[in-house]
Amino acid sequence: MAAAKMSVAEVEQFLRDEFPQAFGGDDITIESADGQTCLLRQRFSERMLRPGGTVSGPTLMALADFAMYVVLLSAIGPIGLAVTTNLNINFLRKGQPGQDVLAEARLLKLGKRLAVGEVKLLSGTSPDPIAHVTSTYSIPNV
Fold it and tell me: Rounded to the nearest 10 degrees, what angle do helices 8-18 and 57-76 cross at?
C-alpha cells in the first residue's frame, strides 16, 4: 500500500467540515493514521453504557466503523462518499465501565473500488480485545 494521502490533521479537518455529526465533539480523538493503520480513542462517558454497566454494542460498532473510515481516508484522500458495505463484529469480552475504548484499524486490501480492513477494539490498557471487526468499504469512482 502507498503512503498516506492525508495526515491526521487533514483527516480531522475534513471530518469537522464534512461529517461534524460524527466528529464534532471531543469524545473521539485520532491518535494516529498512516494510510495503512490508525488508532482512535473514544473517551469514556456514561452514554456508552448499556443496562448492566457494560459498553454497548452500538458504541463499539460505531467506533469500529468510524476507525475504518479514518484509515481509509488517510489512504485514499478526501473522498467523503466512501461507504460501508459490510461490517461484521465479534464481541469477545465485556468492555469495562470507566475505561476509554481504543480502536486499532488496519487495511487488509485496498483496491480501486473496495477496501477491506479489520479493527481490534480494546478497553483501557488491557491488551485483550473486547471485540474484533471486519469491514468492507465501497470507494466511489471519482
Answer: 120
**Residue-by-residue pLDDT tens, the chain, 142 positions:** 568 999 999 999 999 999 988 887 789 999 999 999 999 999 999 999 999 889 999 999 999 999 999 999 999 999 999 999 999 999 999 988 799 999 999 999 999 999 999 999 999 999 999 999 999 999 999 7
Specify the fold of 8-138: Thiol Ester Dehydrase; Chain A (3.10.129)
Q: Where are the alpha helices (DSSP H) in the chain?
A: 8-18, 20-23, 57-76
**What's the whole-model pTM score?**
0.95
Q: At 99, is the secondary structure helix, strand, or coil?
A: coil
